[in-house]
Every structure is written in structure tokens, then in C-alpha cells.
């Protein structure tokens, strides 16, 4: 059904039933069938809108039966709920939908309704204080769309963020493309975006071994507190000694002690080649944790510059541990974890992986009250630990063909109409379902264009 100001409300028009003032059903011929996600206007002054959540074949007489929720002002009768019986409904004017979907701060504008390009959808900035799950299969436009959101946060809020960027997709977040509007260019120039890269002389990405927690150091050395109890205990006993020694001198210091367990620790360091991670260790210089502590508008950690997964995990663990140690400061921070399946899979294979996953689980469960909010982006929800996904209150879903993944999302995000989830397999590139507290109503959005260039792009197929 298309929006139309001159709609026939004769007896043949669609009629709505709402016995409780909350939900509704509409029946009619197949030719008048509305789409899931469409809004219908109820005849009468100050009536709410009817949001279509499900559409099915009417078993009573062919045609269709649609159902959903009444949204807007429904307070009319003595008990606070109006009821409708055989009330005419019609397609809703775009202006009414726009009023409903306009967030208090329209500047955080993500895009337009996919079926009504004249209707913009703005997110609610204050609701970014809930964890957000962002997913879509390869080719859906997930990374591009995530870049749009990060831009809008930078341009319209003062919420600082840390971006864990394994594919170097957001390393140009502080730049603007030619042709970008002057207002956005000026606003972005006023925001400090720091990009830390491995081996970069000006802005290196590295951490201090001596600033890491005992558990983190043990994870780097693949020490189990039970299986490797002697070496683990030696590590705990030598913490103060090691803190006084620069990282390159740790092996020599341990060997000089003449203690068998200290010697074993030195051999472990040498065998694992941990001290050969030249771009990982700060060696007394400013670490990534110190940069983040002063809260730039955005700090992008270019994890894609490391050759070893262990180095990516080490940097991530050091940063997350430091933020958790400072949690009592209650300084708001958005933690954007792209390709989250790399950092918090259900079953990590190494002690470092387990330590990173467990810290993210802890932040997901307890971080909100300290101002640590997660934004997790991945291709498949099944590849992220369920204890983390279940803590998310906001959802952005792009094209997803897997029925199992859609069923999983439906069971976790019960506030999202199943009919909308089912449409994800048919989304075009750049279309997304947004739902949860950060959007006024669940909506299928065509994501707007970007102001900043993408950092990593697909390699094109060579053509003659």
C-alpha cells in the first residue's frame, strides 16, 4: 500500500479491530495487503498509528490478515486505552511517520526509511548508553554503515570512542572526502581523532608490559595457574622486580637471579619470542592506554598492522584491563569492536583469547553502570559469545541469509518483530533494520552517504 492523501474510506475500505488498545488486526483482500513495517492511519482525531508487524493469509476467507502494535497516543477512555471495532484505516501520510521517527536530536540521522525515502530516521543519542549489536553478512554494507554511525556520533555528540579496528577500515575517520558539506567538514575538524598504528613513529600503537595485570602477563606467556603453578607463582613473586626492569632486559634479569623458576620464565619468554614483538611494547614511551586516558574524541587502534594474532590480543587485553581498572572514574566511553568474532568468540583457543573474551563478557555484564558501552560488529551472531550478545539492547541488522542466525537473533532480541527479521534475507546493500532503545521504532533504513573515506575497501576483479 502506498501513502495517499485521497483514500477511499467506503465500506469496502480496510477495517481495524483493537480490543485492548495495544494490538490490532486488519483483514482485507490480497490487493490491499500492507507490508511488514508499514504504518496505517486509524480514522479519527488523535488516533494512534498502526504498525504492521506480521502479515499472513487469512484462513477465514482468503485475502490477508495483518497484525501489530498501536503506537503514539492511545490514551482515550477511562482506563487509559482506546478501543476500536471495524474502524477504517488508510495508508499513513509521510509527515505522520516522520513525526513518530524523529528522535529528540535529529542530527544523529542514520538514513531514510527504505520504502519512504522522504522519511528520515534519527537515532536517540542518549540511548547509546546501552550495548549495541551490529551484524550483517559479507557484502551487506556493514562496515560502510558502521562508519556512518561513527561519523554521526563524532559530529553530533561529545561521546568519546575507542575503535578496535582489525582490518584498518576506520583509520581515515578523521579525514573528509572531497564534496563533503562544509558544516560537516568544519565540525569534524574540531574533533580530535587519533589513529595509533604499529611502528608509526608519530602515533605508535603499543603498550607497557609492566602496566599489564598479573593475569594478562601470564596469558601473554601462556601460563596456567594450575598446570604451570611453579612458573606462575614465580611470576607473581617477581612482579616488583620485573616492573623495575625495561622490557628488553627482562630475560637477562631473570637469568641473573639464579633461581630455577626464574630461569624457566626466561626460557619461556625466549621460546615464545615475546620480546621480538618490537612494535607491541612501548619500552618506556607513551602507551595506548595513556592516550585513551586523556579521552580524544576517537581513538582508532589499527590492529590490522600486526602480523601475529597474539599481538592484536595483547594490545586489546592491555587496553580493556586498563579501562576496567579505571571504571570507578565513570567517564563515558563507547568501545567499538569491529569483527567482534575475532576478540570474543564462544571458544577461544589460547589463554590470551580467553582473557580478552572474559574481560569483554565482564564489560557487557557490568560496564554500563560505569559508562563503558559496547558496540559489537560481526558477520554472524553465532560466532560471538552468547553471554555478550544477550546483554545488547540495540540491534542493527543488515542482509542476513542464514535462517539459523536469524532465529538466534529473534530469540535474543525479542523486541524485534519476527516479520521484520525475516526480511533481512532480501535487504539490498546498505539497507539495515534498526531496533531497540536507540531508535523510536523498529525501522528498515537506507543508510545515508558517508562524509569520511573508507580505510579498507574490497579488491576489485581485474577487467579487460
TrEMBL record:
Pfam families: DUF87. This is Helicase HerA central domain-containing protein. InterPro entries: HerA-like, HerA_central, P-loop_NTPase. Residues 108-223 form the Helicase HerA central domain. Residues 1-29 are annotated as: Disordered. It comes from the Bacteria.
